[in-house]
Amino acid sequence: MTEDSPNLTGERPTSDSSASTLARLDRRSREIFRRIVDTYLETGEPLGSRNLSRILPMALSPASIRNVMADLEYLGLIYSPHTSAGRLPTESGLRLFVDAMLEVGDLTADERRDIENRVAAGGSGRPVDEFLADASRMLSGLSRGAGVVLASKIDQRLKQVEFLRLEPTRALVVLVGEDGSVENRLIDIEPGTSPSALIEASNYINAHLRGRSLSEARTELLHRQTEMRAELDQLTARLVDQGLASWAGKSAGRLETLIVRGQANLLEDVRAAEDLERIRLLFDDIETQRELVELLGSAEAGDGVRIFIGSENKLFSLSGSSLVVSPYRDQENRVVGVLGVIGPTRLNYARIVPMVDYTAKLVGRLIR
Description:
Elements: E1 8-10, H1 15-23, H2 27-43, H3 49-55, H4 62-74, E2 78-79, E3 88-89, H5 91-101, H6 109-119, H7 128-143, E4 146-151, E5 158-167, E6 170-177, E7 182-188, H8 195-208, H9 214-223, H10 225-231, H11 234-251, E8 257-261, H12 273-288, H13 290-298, E9 305-309, E10 321-329, E11 335-344, H14 349-366
Parallel strand pairs: 1-9
Antiparallel strand pairs: 2-3, 4-8, 4-11, 5-6, 6-7, 9-10, 10-11
Helix pairs in contact: 1-5, 2-4, 3-4, 6-14, 7-14, 8-11, 9-11
């Protein structure tokens, strides 16, 4: 495996569990199971014993194939959607395939250039959110699924901070980063805080902390506590501290910016009314964001690409969807976000895994 080769990890079961199940399958059982999964991933259709007998590399009668299929069904790896129909893989079957049988290649040079052109072109100097949105849009376009990016607020360097009173006890803190990004936070202020105190707090931060990252600014404030108290009155000093804390506290916490592009692609594979209802439920979950943020946030803990299939996560338990996701890191090797693809369980995993993996590494190189 090269440095750029995808590192694939599964959510469940463990690799030992998958290996144990795989060990129970003989050569012809594995081949029949693989053909059923391959057909499902390619067409979404069940594969029957008669068609299997035509494509298998070994000579087996339809009756012998049906016996093997019965064994696979007993193991919970395949099922029959209708009486007398062919077989489809179960979620457990897909997990076994992904963990133990999936052959993940690498991207071609042309595919890498395509991803770089879509994401990296013009990435330097742009606000981070812009090229993250491009990455999400690119993943959606190449996978025909929904591209998703969960990003922490990059510890951007301060250019300007301004405090604006909204109510007697509420103020808006406006932070402008050196990358051109603008963010607002509401903070509570003491009754009777004067307009001049707000202006003085802005001037103090801009004079002493401009050009520093949020974490650096917080550290500098701690070192300057005595000096700051001497220069500013008590209310103004509290404003300075509270204004920076409104960002620094968030940045040290959970990932918080969710970008989703291409949800409409998820409708392309809908074939029946019940499928449409499942996708509607997924759209509702994406719209509320909370569970998707939690799911993506959990993926930041491991290295490499992770795959969540169907009911392995409650977000997808009703919608029959899968997520292929990888964390990405900044220049200091800190995990600062997660990106990936949401699609039906019959995603082309062999193609999407290296695509997600390479995009994560590319985005990590672009973040400064």
